[in-house]
């Protein structure tokens, strides 16, 4: 083998080593695997009884059907924002027990596991209390209000290794996750040089807009728009960042609360983030809900030998050195990841597979990055990761 061929082979091996060690796997979203979770042997027929803490739109349309597709999995109880709302949800979805307070649900000895479907500000408190009550935990994203709370949740999960802890991962990139990982690992682009990710709404600013929980720091913490979920997807492809710089802007400084009163919106509605990867490549992300008639969502991945483009419909196009234009990349449906979070969670409780998407460790990483964005925007300085 020639020296040139040896150099190419060594470079490819280094690239694969970097990507395989840094990127987060999407195996959990693919076809079920028969794995032993945390050394626990259990029967596939083991009955698992789930309690819902918070039962908003996502829980009703996604998690409830997901649990009910699992054999021998029963949704036993629900605790929503009030006893009345809990009773409404229980009646609509034929759930046997309704509680007016989440603490009452955790005290129910018949509940084996809980889904936490509240806003981020309650995730840490309920997660720790659930673990202390001996319940397995599936928690909605975003993981917590800030990195400190995320670390507390992770530490609590480590105190109870016999209990399964999982976050609901972002599914917005499932269609392209496997294809992008394969293209990168196979060296299609050569050396990864830079990435451009745009996640923008196409609407103009709504200066009489509603102050919902996503704009309220009390309920959402440092979570802004969809920065955490986008970074979670990016970690699957490229691994975590090492240094973050950010600028933010609030174009709609006041919004109307649930009583119709104008209140200050403390979370930005437009931001730019630049961060560095382990290999020195730079990733630029732009987020906005005030970019009227913008080109919307898109992702560009630039390498020394090739380029990958993902459009707003999640179609993939690729090109290599010497090409004059991009060409559509075949991404057949049977090779795409699929949403199966509730299945993975219940299987992990039964000891049939391990949780890989998304672990509390993954959540800590995206919460640290989210807080690094906030700190950099506030100070004008670069913030290094991990915090």
Structure characteristics:
387 residues, alpha/beta, Rossmann fold, Dihydrodipicolinate Reductase, domain 2, nine-stranded mixed sheet, 22% strand, globular, disordered N terminus
In words, what does this structure look like?
The protein is an alpha/beta fold. The protein folds into 2 domains: 31-167, NAD(P)-binding Rossmann-like Domain (Rossmann fold); 174-337 and 359-384, Dihydrodipicolinate Reductase, domain 2 (2-Layer Sandwich), CATH 3.30.360. The chain is built from 11 helices and 17 strands. It has helices at 3-22, 57-68, 83-93, 102-106, 123-132, 147-159, 174-185, 217-220, 227-238, 341-349, 360-379, and strands spanning 48-53, 73-79, 97-99, 113-116, 136-139, 165-167, 192-200, 241-249, 254-256, 262-264, 270-277, 282-288, 298-303, 306-310, 316-320, 327-328, 383-384. The strands form 3 sheets. A 9-stranded mixed β-sheet has the order 16-15-14-13-7-12-11-8-17. A 6-stranded parallel β-sheet has the order 3-2-1-4-5-6, sandwiched between helices. Strand 11 and strand 12 form a beta hairpin. It is globular. The relative contact order is 0.18.
Query: What percent of the residues sit in helical stretches (DSSP H or I)?
Result: 25-40%
> How many domain units?
2
Spatial order of the strands in the main sheet?
16-15-14-13-7-12-11-8-17
CATH superfamily of the largest domain: Dihydrodipicolinate Reductase, domain 2
In short:
The protein has 387 residues and is α/β, with parallel strands linked by helices. It has helices at residues 3-22, 57-68, 83-93, 102-106, 123-132, 147-159, 174-185, 217-220, 227-238, 341-349, 360-379, and strands at 48-53, 73-79, 97-99, 113-116, 136-139, 165-167, 192-200, 241-249, 254-256, 262-264, 270-277, 282-288, 298-303, 306-310, 316-320, 327-328, 383-384.
